[in-house]
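call fold(seq) -> C-alpha coordinates
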Amino acid sequence: MSKSEDTTRATKLDNPLDTVLSGASRFAIEVVAWVAGPWAAADLTGNWLMTIPALAILVALPGVFSTTGDKKHVVVAVPGPVRLLIEIFLAVVAIASAAIVWTFIGGIIVTVVAAIMFVAGAKRAKWLFSNKPPRWPSPSD
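ret:
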Protein backbone atom coordinates (compact mmCIF):
# COMPACT_ATOMS: atom_id res chain seq x y z
CA MET A 1 0.00 0.00 0.00
CA SER A 2 1.45 3.37 -0.98
CA LYS A 3 1.75 6.40 1.27
CA SER A 4 -1.11 8.19 -0.53
CA GLU A 5 -3.39 5.17 -0.07
CA ASP A 6 -2.56 5.15 3.65
CA THR A 7 -3.46 8.83 3.93
CA THR A 8 -6.69 8.38 1.97
CA ARG A 9 -7.67 5.37 4.04
CA ALA A 10 -6.82 7.14 7.31
CA THR A 11 -9.01 10.08 6.31
CA LYS A 12 -11.85 7.78 5.39
CA LEU A 13 -11.72 5.55 8.49
CA ASP A 14 -9.74 7.75 10.92
CA ASN A 15 -7.47 4.84 11.91
CA PRO A 16 -5.60 2.90 9.20
CA LEU A 17 -5.74 -0.25 11.35
CA ASP A 18 -9.53 -0.11 11.22
CA THR A 19 -11.49 -1.80 8.44
CA VAL A 20 -14.96 -1.28 7.08
CA LEU A 21 -16.01 -4.65 8.53
CA SER A 22 -14.60 -3.95 12.00
CA GLY A 23 -16.07 -0.45 12.06
CA ALA A 24 -19.48 -1.60 10.85
CA SER A 25 -19.64 -4.51 13.29
CA ARG A 26 -18.46 -2.26 16.15
CA PHE A 27 -21.22 0.21 15.29
CA ALA A 28 -23.79 -2.61 15.13
CA ILE A 29 -22.74 -3.77 18.61
CA GLU A 30 -23.05 -0.20 19.92
CA VAL A 31 -26.56 0.13 18.47
CA VAL A 32 -27.64 -3.22 19.95
CA ALA A 33 -26.24 -2.17 23.34
CA TRP A 34 -28.06 1.18 23.08
CA VAL A 35 -31.38 -0.49 22.20
CA ALA A 36 -31.34 -3.78 24.09
CA GLY A 37 -29.36 -2.58 27.14
CA PRO A 38 -31.90 -0.09 28.46
CA TRP A 39 -34.72 -2.45 27.49
CA ALA A 40 -33.11 -5.25 29.53
CA ALA A 41 -32.52 -2.85 32.43
CA ALA A 42 -36.22 -2.01 32.44
CA ASP A 43 -37.18 -5.70 32.22
CA LEU A 44 -34.83 -6.72 35.03
CA THR A 45 -35.80 -3.92 37.41
CA GLY A 46 -39.46 -3.69 36.46
CA ASN A 47 -39.06 0.07 36.14
CA TRP A 48 -39.01 1.79 32.74
CA LEU A 49 -37.21 4.79 34.30
CA MET A 50 -34.06 2.65 34.43
CA THR A 51 -33.82 3.05 30.67
CA ILE A 52 -32.71 6.67 31.09
CA PRO A 53 -29.46 6.16 33.06
CA ALA A 54 -28.72 2.93 31.18
CA LEU A 55 -28.99 4.67 27.81
CA ALA A 56 -27.01 7.69 29.02
CA ILE A 57 -24.15 5.50 30.22
CA LEU A 58 -24.11 3.27 27.13
CA VAL A 59 -24.10 6.22 24.72
CA ALA A 60 -21.69 8.38 26.72
CA LEU A 61 -18.97 5.77 27.20
CA PRO A 62 -17.98 5.30 23.54
CA GLY A 63 -18.96 8.84 22.57
CA VAL A 64 -16.90 10.65 25.17
CA PHE A 65 -13.88 8.43 25.86
CA SER A 66 -11.55 7.86 22.89
CA THR A 67 -7.90 7.19 22.27
CA THR A 68 -5.86 9.84 20.48
CA GLY A 69 -5.13 8.72 16.93
CA ASP A 70 -8.12 6.38 16.81
CA LYS A 71 -10.95 8.83 16.22
CA LYS A 72 -11.27 12.17 14.47
CA HIS A 73 -12.92 13.84 17.48
CA VAL A 74 -11.55 13.02 20.92
CA VAL A 75 -13.56 14.55 23.76
CA VAL A 76 -11.73 12.88 26.64
CA ALA A 77 -8.49 11.12 25.74
CA VAL A 78 -8.01 7.78 27.47
CA PRO A 79 -5.31 5.12 27.12
CA GLY A 80 -5.90 2.44 24.51
CA PRO A 81 -6.61 -0.35 27.03
CA VAL A 82 -9.38 1.75 28.58
CA ARG A 83 -11.00 2.22 25.15
CA LEU A 84 -10.68 -1.51 24.53
CA LEU A 85 -12.38 -2.25 27.87
CA ILE A 86 -15.24 0.10 26.91
CA GLU A 87 -15.73 -1.83 23.66
CA ILE A 88 -15.60 -5.18 25.47
CA PHE A 89 -18.13 -3.88 28.01
CA LEU A 90 -20.48 -2.77 25.20
CA ALA A 91 -20.17 -6.18 23.53
CA VAL A 92 -21.00 -7.97 26.79
CA VAL A 93 -23.98 -5.68 27.38
CA ALA A 94 -25.17 -6.19 23.80
CA ILE A 95 -24.92 -9.98 24.01
CA ALA A 96 -26.49 -10.33 27.46
CA SER A 97 -29.23 -7.80 26.73
CA ALA A 98 -30.09 -9.37 23.39
CA ALA A 99 -30.37 -12.75 25.09
CA ILE A 100 -32.68 -11.27 27.72
CA VAL A 101 -35.00 -9.24 25.48
CA TRP A 102 -34.75 -11.07 22.14
CA THR A 103 -34.37 -14.67 23.41
CA PHE A 104 -31.28 -16.81 23.09
CA ILE A 105 -31.39 -16.65 19.28
CA GLY A 106 -30.95 -12.89 19.47
CA GLY A 107 -28.05 -13.47 21.85
CA ILE A 108 -26.45 -15.93 19.43
CA ILE A 109 -26.78 -13.53 16.49
CA VAL A 110 -25.28 -10.67 18.49
CA THR A 111 -22.49 -13.00 19.70
CA VAL A 112 -21.62 -13.76 16.08
CA VAL A 113 -21.52 -10.04 15.26
CA ALA A 114 -19.32 -9.41 18.32
CA ALA A 115 -16.96 -12.21 17.24
CA ILE A 116 -16.74 -10.61 13.79
CA MET A 117 -16.03 -7.26 15.47
CA PHE A 118 -13.15 -8.68 17.50
CA VAL A 119 -11.65 -10.78 14.70
CA ALA A 120 -11.91 -8.04 12.05
CA GLY A 121 -10.61 -5.45 14.50
CA ALA A 122 -7.73 -7.52 15.87
CA LYS A 123 -5.00 -5.22 14.50
CA ARG A 124 -6.71 -2.15 15.95
CA ALA A 125 -7.29 -3.94 19.27
CA LYS A 126 -3.62 -4.97 19.41
CA TRP A 127 -2.60 -1.34 18.85
CA LEU A 128 -5.07 -0.11 21.52
CA PHE A 129 -3.81 -2.71 23.99
CA SER A 130 -0.18 -1.75 23.33
CA ASN A 131 -0.95 1.85 24.38
CA LYS A 132 1.61 3.12 21.85
CA PRO A 133 1.16 6.45 20.06
CA PRO A 134 -0.16 6.17 16.50
CA ARG A 135 2.36 5.78 13.65
CA TRP A 136 0.07 7.57 11.20
CA PRO A 137 -1.04 11.17 10.74
CA SER A 138 -3.71 12.28 13.14
CA PRO A 139 -7.18 12.39 11.52
CA SER A 140 -8.04 15.94 10.54
CA ASP A 141 -11.40 17.65 10.30
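The CA atoms of residues 10 and 16 lie 5 Å apart.
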